[in-house]
Amino acid sequence: MSTKISKRIASAIINSLSAGVVPRIGIDNVAVGREKEIKSLLQNLEDVAQKGAAFRFIVGNYGSGKSFMLQLLRNQAMEQGFVVADADLSAEKRLAGTNQEGLATYRELMRNMAIKNRPEGGALVSILEGWINKIQQEVAKETGTRPNDDRFDDYVETRIQEVVASIEGLVHGFDFGNVISAYWRGYRLGNDEKKSAALRWLRGEFNSKTEAKSALAEVRVIIDDDTWYDYIKLIAKFTADIGYQGLLVFLDEAVHLYQIANAIAREKNYDKLLAIFNDTMQGRVENLGIFVSGTPKFLEDPNRGLFKNPAWQRRTKESRFVKQAGMQDVFSPVIRLTPLNSAEIYALLQRIADVHAVNFGYEVKLQKQDFQNFVQAVENRLGAEALLTPGEIVRDFIGVLNVIHQNPAIAFSQLIRGADLRLTSNKDDAAEFSL
């Protein structure tokens, strides 16, 4: 690592990776390889910032680095001035359903909405009030008035209504604009109840129109399972209009859509995803990027994956010529993650060792040969050339580092030689290795 990281970040990285999850912070400190893929995804960010849109699948087996890629892109996007929102799909959080599963995904995205100065999520209030404060500063500078002057709030409201007016022509834009205006009026009058009601509406927390109308007189509808994606598009437009680069949505664990047992429910979710894909790829939406991660079966299984629908095959199937040549097209709608090579694994282990040492407060004593021996041990596993995943490698290595730290008398090479390496498989038929 080029710079020494803090104990807090090191601890977050080691704890996350040990548990098999992607760190929320400090991820750049353990990122290696994937340069072509990252460059391609960063090009998508440029497109979104220029009033374009993007939709990308990141596909790979369990532990291949899909979630890692999404998190890395999420963090880089915040640095570039995007609003980001992420959600892990599950049995309760889907794109469509009969029990508000789509709305549950929207609510999760809103809870996890983040910006550079609020990276942990829950950034909706910061976005709205930062925008209002910015307008107030601009009005004060341009008009020479101050917040206590009679005309000051009127000038501010005029500027706010200009943004609202640009949204009203979109689907559901009128109601969305009314809620933004309601939040401003609550802010202007110091009415926390009105502000809270507007936030609840924007977060999709009202369960009925009657409930929403009672709390917020300005609205006629609520965000629900059928309309939640329309409001994602509105938020993308709104955030771009108020000075952000746009909105990026990250949907992880799309394999849960593949695992829906009911065929009709599964197809309904796939159809919703196709509508979103078409919207972004055909240029019908601005300043919005959608990034979805899933396993190869989720995409390519002809019986229950996306490829069951010929429309999905036409849009996402890999070029036969590229496939025959053994090449990778990282600018296609689907990025397929390939195994890390030996040099990348070596670099990854070095970074993990550095972070582990910071976390537990010791000096790294491993030699170059130790890293090489571990890489060799990993590569010697049956089928490793096709099945190595960063997740499995990292968990194995951290486990070894933990044991060595707890038992200083045991040599690294001794532990590696004594390891019983065996091949196992998980429920998705993606191979894993364990000690």
TrEMBL record:
InterPro entries: BrxD, P-loop_NTPase. It holds the Pfam family BrxC_BrxD. It comes from the Bacteria. This is Biotin carboxylase. It comes from Chroogloeocystis siderophila 5.2 s.c.1.
